[in-house]
């Protein structure tokens, strides 16, 4: 009986100490924004506008393809209302997310990265340009 009591005391003590959250490092939250085709998103003193779909050769759902394909979009970057550059963003399964960090915009204050383009094509459905959107990740 003493052994069982001793084991229970050890278990509860260990469980209580394991809950110490004062030493836990919390990462800065990542913000993911949805940018619709033809629309603009503002981040601090910059604006990003989804202006064109250059190509979308992704393999549609319901079809077997040899090549996975890719989607290419153009984003205009404005600062204080003036266009400063145009970014060509490629969405491809070959491109690793690690290589994409800050691929839309990067500064000391924040990074803007492209995560995904949607909707995904289906073999029997044409996607209208207005239906496209991209997901942008903003890291401060």
Which strand order do you get reading across the main beta sheet?
A: 1-8-7-6
Strand content: 35-45%
Order of helices and strands: HEEEEEHEEE
Give the number of helices.
Answer: 2
CATH topology heading = Tick-borne Encephalitis virus Glycoprotein, domain 1
Shape: flat
- CATH architecture heading: Sandwich
Instruction: Give the CA-CA distance, first to last residue.
Output: 57 Å
Structure in words:
Strand 6 and strand 7 form a beta hairpin. The protein has helices spanning 2-17, 97-100, and strands spanning 31-36, 40-43, 46-56, 71-79, 82-91, 105-106, 111-118, 133-139. The protein is mainly β. The strands form 2 sheets. It has a 4-stranded antiparallel sheet with strand order 1-8-7-6, with no helix packed on it. It has a 4-stranded antiparallel sheet with strand order 2-3-4-5, with no helix packed on it. The N and C termini lie far apart (57 Å). The longest helix has 16 residues, at 2-17. It has one domain (27-139): Tick-borne Encephalitis virus Glycoprotein, domain 1 (Sandwich), CATH 2.60.98.
């Amino acid at each position: 009986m003493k052994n069982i009591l001793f084991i229970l005391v050890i278990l509860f003590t260990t469980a209580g100490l394991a809950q110490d959250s004062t030493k836990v490092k919390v990462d800065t939250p990542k913000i993911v924004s949805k940018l619709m085709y033809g629309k603009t998103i503002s981040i601090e003193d910059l604006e990003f506008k989804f202006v064109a779909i250059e190509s979308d050769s992704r393999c549609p759902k319901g079809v077997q393809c040899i090549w996975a394909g890719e989607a290419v979009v153009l984003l205009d970057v404005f600062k204080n209302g003036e266009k400063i550059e145009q970014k060509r963003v490629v969405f491809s399964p070959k491109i690793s997310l690690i290589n994409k960090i800050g691929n839309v915009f990067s500064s000391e204050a924040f990074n803007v990265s492209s995560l995904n383009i949607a909707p995904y094509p289906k073999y029997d459905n044409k996607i209208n340009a207005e239906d496209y959107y991209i997901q942008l990740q903003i890291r401060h």
